[in-house]
Every structure is written in structure tokens, then in C-alpha cells.
User: Which sequence fits this backbone?
């Protein structure tokens, strides 16, 4: 067996890492959320004002709900794109499987910013999409609402997070023993019934994991609204960012962060419970 | 090629027991350049227990999958009760399968697994619980109705798989090495239950195995496959008594293969000679060990072929003795009733009728 000293030496670096870069910042954020700003300085006086503000000022809740709407939209769209792709690749792609898999993965190597700017180029009033629509005479002048709208944010984030939804889905589909599909057909079920009664239920853990990725990552995103969203699609992370930056109200920013953190943690907790219940091996 | 008398006997037996349920006509299957089945033709009679027996790679599972509909034949046709089967998708065939690893749905309970086939084929809802219950009763698994498959032992999963396949009342039940994952005792027990279940229900069973003892114990007829082709199709007794080929003779039971030459209706094999009505030329004969008898006092039946051989080894196994004989260089295996130690040269005999000509 390993000696006590060895165990300590091996486990110390990761523990230190977690303590310094995770637990400490969270603790700082947590205590800040109970302080306040007076005369442009952070005053270390314990109070609940920040939390009260969150519920009194309708802007915060409105932005939070918008963020969640966008997150739901991104999640649903990513599933809509990712599931058929994963299903096709797992069950019908045959020898092309590996190539297609690489094609799904490659965009993950491209910087988030580059992909954001690409969408700006596509959706802008001088952009590719408008140019094309005018070229084929669908429109006569540039359409403004493509860019700088919640629609653009959903589009861009869907593009970015679909691989994250695809990967766990594909893994769970690949894990379904093929003789279960044969057994289903053997017992008289056509493709539709086999999908609904066997494949879909057995892919639920992967579906849930993918959906959680898309939802949680969107919830914390602030670059997409900056790049393609415009003022009408400000998300909750943008508010946090400005509170910690130009607005210099760390306590309020921290209070919002704590709320989002709690929301995310309870979501993860819930999905983990569900995943456990839906996995049978 | 079976002996003329016996194949007529087979045909008569089949005609008596019922009509042809499944007709495999000249079916071949290639996976790329690899030929897995080589123009197989096979008729399965309604109500019989037929076993596809062969080593791994002999094509037995492929033939089963062609009948179930999971693979398409490269050429040839499969018919069932006058209807073309190989053009139908698996879910439209009145054929059900017991899979090798059971393939139970892990997310469904035992009763949901068994009821699956009834639900998807649109059996009236109120009828389902009764039929599920009946099927579970049949395999003695009623008390596990609400359990998930993961909670069951291998033997129990096996029973559920059987109930799930039988609840649809198929015309033909395919069983793909269903007992291979069970330990020896359970295996024996399940063999007995399978056989009596098959008799009770009168459903035609097509059973795949590589275990010749299992095939002998269960089958009405055995179809022996080798390298994608049928070696012989006959009842266990027939195949044992009259193996068509040297492979059949050696795969089912033990035998002595005697390389001989036929001249003027006399077989010459080393120092042995016996009469046989066969065309002249080289021939191969199978002589079962128990067909060689000891003649302690030199008295033998009238037409017996007698010879003297040296006993090289003797293994006692309770009721019988296994002897390794040396007949002037030709090794022979014999099995005789237990009778104390033997040594040196002894007198033996066999009846010419027991030396069966087989193809190479």
C-alpha cells in the first residue's frame, strides 16, 4: 500500500489548485454579495440589500428570464440538430462514421471568437446572407434584424454548442447493444416503434447530458450578446460583467453570480438524479 | 448423400408428421468476398425440433439471421407456408428469436419485456396482461414480473427471453445458442424444459448450437453444417448410424475412419477384408468403437469379420472399457463392456454392416 506521506504529496497539488482557484474565489464572491458600495468604495458592512435589489428592480429578473429563454432555445435547437446527426451517424453512417465524426469535432478547434465574427460577417447588413438575398431578389435592401437580435444570439450559440450536445448523445447511442434493435424488430416493431420504445429511452442519459451542457453554457455566456446580440439581447452574464467592470458594484455582481450559481448547481443536481434513474447498466 | 433407404425413410417420416413450414431454397450469403453460406437448401417440417449444428464459422448463425430477417441472402429464396419470407422485413415475419445474450430491454421490467411484442403488434390492450401472465407462468417466472432484467440471473433472463419470444405465438421459434452462457447443470435442466415446452406448444423450433451432445439430446433432426454447406440432414440416430461424410462421422460421436480399396465387391483395408456391394476404387469407411467386439472364446457370429489386434491401452470407465488397439500398424478404437484387464494380442470381430461407407 501507499504510505501516508506519498498520498499527501500526490494529492496536495490538485487540492491546493482547487482551494486557491475555485473555493477561495467562490468564498470571496459569497462574502462580497453581503457587502455594499459606499462613495465608490466597497464597504465591509454585512447586509442583504444586494439580494433585495435583485427582486425589486424588474430589469434583473427580466434579463434573467430572457437569458433562460435564450438558453432553452439554444438547447432545443441544438438537440434538434444534434440528435438526428448522432442517430444517423451511430446507426446508418457505416464506413463514413469516422470521417463524419471528425467533421463534427473540427469546429471545436476553431476559436470561439473567430466563429462569433464569422456569424457577424454572415448576418450583418453588408453580410453574406443579405448579399445573397438581394442577389436572388428576395429582398431589395439589407434586412436589419438578422444581426443584433436574440435570434442572432440563439443562432450563434446553437452553432457553437451543437457539438457539445452531439458528443454525449452519440456516445449513449453507440452504447445501445445492436441486438436490442434486432430484438425489437423481431418482436414486430417497425423502425418508428423501435426508435420510440427502445432507442430514445436508452439514449435519454446522453440527451440529458447534452441538453445540460447547452443550457448551462448558454446561461453563462456573455460574448455572443456582445458580438451579435445588441442591446435587445443583453444576457445576465453581461450585467455581471459590467457590474464587476465599469459600474464597479462588485457586491451586486456577486449577488447575481451567487443566484446563477445556485440555479446551475440545482440544475446539475437534478439532471444527475434523472440520469441515474434513466441508466440501466 | 444419405443412404437411399434412409432418405426415403426420412421423407416418409416428414410426410407423416406434417407439411413443410419453412423452405430454404438454394440460399447463399457472402460478406464481401467471403462466402459464409454456400447454396444451402433445407426444409423444416411443421412442429419439429431441428438443430443447426456446426463449429463456429460454419454459417449456422448466418442462416438463422437470414430466416429472422436481420440479413439478406445474396442469392436464393426462403419461403414459409407458401409465402415468400426473405423479401419481408423482420417485423413482418411470424418468426421470433431467442438471442444468444438474451437481448432483454434493460429499461423495461420483465412483464414489459414480455408484453413488448403484443403492444407493438397492436394486440387489444385488455388482452395483454393475461397473455403476459400466461407466458411468464409457462417459464415459471411470474413472481419476477415487476423486476428489471439486470436483477435476474442468467438462467432467469433466459426464461424471460423465451417467454418474450413465445408470447407472440410464432410459427417458428429461432434459438441462437440460447444455453451457451449457462453453467453445465442449469444447461441440462434447461434442455429438458425446452424440449418439453416445444412438445407442449407444438411450435417448430430451429435451434443453433455447436454442442453435439445438446443437438443429439434435443433434436428431431440435425442439420450439420461445415464451411457454409450442409454435410447431412437427418435424425440423431440416423446421422450416428449412417454418417454421410467423414466429417459427420467424426463430429457426432467417436469413430474409426478406415481408408480402404474396393475390388470385385470386396473391401480391402490393410489386413482386413469384407464383402460390400460398392463400385471399385478407393473408399472410406466409418466403424464406431462400440461396433468392435471382443471374442474371448473365439466364437463369433456367422458373417462377422474377425481379426487379431494388440491392446495398446485400456481405460476403464465404469460400465465400459475404452481400448486403443493396434492392428498391424493401423490404430483402432474400441469400446467393449467392462470386463477386467486385457493384455497382448486378442481376438476381435465386427459385422460388415457396421462399417459404413462415408464421403471424404
Assistant:
Amino acid at each position: 500500500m501507499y504510505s501516508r506521506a506519498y498520498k499527501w504529496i500526490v494529492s496536495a497539488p490538485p487540492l491546493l489548485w482547487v482551494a486557491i482557484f475555485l473555493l477561495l474565489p467562490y468564498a470571496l464572491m459569497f462574502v462580497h454579495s453581503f457587502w455594499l458600495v459606499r462613495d465608490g468604495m466597497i464597504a465591509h458592512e454585512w447586509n442583504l440589500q444586494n439580494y433585495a435589489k435583485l427582486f425589486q428592480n424588474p430589469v434583473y429578473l427580466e434579463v434573467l428570464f430572457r437569458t433562460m429563454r435564450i438558453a432553452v432555445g439554444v438547447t432545443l435547437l441544438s438537440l434538434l440538430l444534434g440528435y438526428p446527426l448522432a442517430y444517423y451517424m451511430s446507426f446508418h453512417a457505416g464506413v463514413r462514421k469516422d470521417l463524419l465524426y471528425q467533421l463534427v469535432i473540427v469546429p471545436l478547434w476553431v476559436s470561439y471568437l473567430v466563429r462569433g465574427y464569422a456569424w457577424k460577417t454572415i448576418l450583418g447588413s453588408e453580410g453574406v446572407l443579405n448579399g445573397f438575398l438581394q442577389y436572388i431578389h428576395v429582398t431589395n435592401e439589407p434586412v436589419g434584424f438578422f444581426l443584433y437580435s436574440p435570434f442572432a444570439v440563439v443562432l450563434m450559440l446553437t452553432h457553437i454548442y451543437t457539438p457539445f450536445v452531439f458528443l454525449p448523445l452519440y456516445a449513449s447511442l453507440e452504447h445501445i447493444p445492436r441486438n436490442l434493435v434486432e430484438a425489437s424488430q423481431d418482436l414486430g416493431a417497425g423502425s418508428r416503434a423501435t426508435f420510440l420504445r427502445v432507442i430514445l429511452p436508452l439514449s435519454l442519459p446522453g440527451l440529458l447530458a447534452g441538453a445540460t451542457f447547452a443550457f448551462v453554457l448558454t446561461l453563462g455566456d456573455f460574448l455572443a450578446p456582445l458580438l451579435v446580440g445588441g442591446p435587445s439581447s443583453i444576457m445576465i452574464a453581461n450585467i455581471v460583467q459590467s457590474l464587476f467592470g465599469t459600474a464597479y458594484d462588485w457586491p451586486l455582481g456577486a449577488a447575481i453570480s451567487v443566484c446563477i450559481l445556485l440555479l446551475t448547481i440545482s440544475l446539475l443536481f437534478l439532471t444527475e438524479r434523472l440520469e441515474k434513474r434513466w441508466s440501466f447498466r | 448423400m444419405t443412404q437411399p433407404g434412409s432418405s426415403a425413410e426420412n421423407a416418409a417420416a416428414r410426410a407423416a408428421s406434417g407439411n413443410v413450414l419453412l423452405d430454404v431454397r438454394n440460399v447463399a450469403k457472402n460478406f464481401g468476398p467471403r462466402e459464409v453460406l454456400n447454396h444451402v437448401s433445407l426444409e423444416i417440417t411443421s412442429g419439429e425440433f431441428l438443430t443447426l449444428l456446426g463449429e463456429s464459422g460454419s454459417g449456422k448463425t448466418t442462416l438463422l439471421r437470414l430466416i429472422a430477417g436481420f440479413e439478406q441472402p445474396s442469392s436464393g429464396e426462403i419461403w414459409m407456408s407458401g409465402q415468400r419470407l426473405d423479401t419481408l422485413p423482420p417485423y413482418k415475419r411470424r418468426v421470433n428469436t431467442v438471442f444468444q445474450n438474451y437481448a432483454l430491454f434493460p429499461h423495461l421490467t420483465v412483464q414489459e419485456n414480455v408484453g413488448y411484442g403484443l403492444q407493438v403488434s397492436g394486440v387489444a390492450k385488455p388482452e395483454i396482461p393475461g397473455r403476459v401472465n400466461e407466458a411468464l407462468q409457462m417459464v415459471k417466472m411470474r413472481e419476477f414480473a415487476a423486476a428489471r432484467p439486470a436483477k435476474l440471473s442468467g438462467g432467469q433472463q433466459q426464461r424471460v427471453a423465451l417467454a418474450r419470444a413465445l408470447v407472440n405465438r410464432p410459427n417458428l421459434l429461432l434459438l441462437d445458442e440460447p444455453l451457451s452462457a449457462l453453467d453445465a447443470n442449469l444447461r441440462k435442466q434447461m434442455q429438458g424444459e425446452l424440449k418439453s415446452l416445444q412438445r407442449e406448444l407444438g411450435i417448430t423450433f430451429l435451434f443453433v448450437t455447436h454442442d453435439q451432445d445438446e443437438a443429439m439430446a434435443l433434436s428431431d433432426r440435425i442439420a450439420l453444417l461445415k464451411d457454409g454447406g450442409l454435410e447431412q440432414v437427418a435424425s440423431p440416430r440416423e446421422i450416428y448410424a449412417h454418417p454421410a461424410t467423414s466429417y459427420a462421422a467424426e463430429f457426432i460421436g467417436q469413430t474409426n475412419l478406415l481408408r480402404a480399396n474396393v475390388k470385385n465387391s470386396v473391401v480391402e483395408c490393410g489386413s482386413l477384408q469384407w464383402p460390400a456391394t460398392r463400385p471399385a476404387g478407393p473408399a472410406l469407411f466409418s466403424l464406431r468403437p462400440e461396433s468392435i467386439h471382443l471374442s474371448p472364446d473365439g466364437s463369433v457370429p456367422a458373417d462377422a469379420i474377425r481379426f487379431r489386434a494388440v491392446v495398446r491401452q485400456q481405460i476403464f470407465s465404469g460400465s465400459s472399457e475404452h481400448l486403443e488397439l493396434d492392428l498391424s500398424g493401423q490404430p483402432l478404437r474400441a469400446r467393449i463392456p467392462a470386463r477386467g484387464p486385457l493384455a497382448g494380442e486378442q481376438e476381435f470381430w465386427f459385422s460388415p454392416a457396421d462399417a459404413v461407407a462415408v464421403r471424404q
Q: What stands out?
A: The interface with chain A takes residues 68-70, 89-92, 95-97, 99, 101, 103-107, 116-117, 120-121, 148, 150, 164-165, 168 of chain B (CB under 8 Å). The mean pLDDT of chain B is 90.
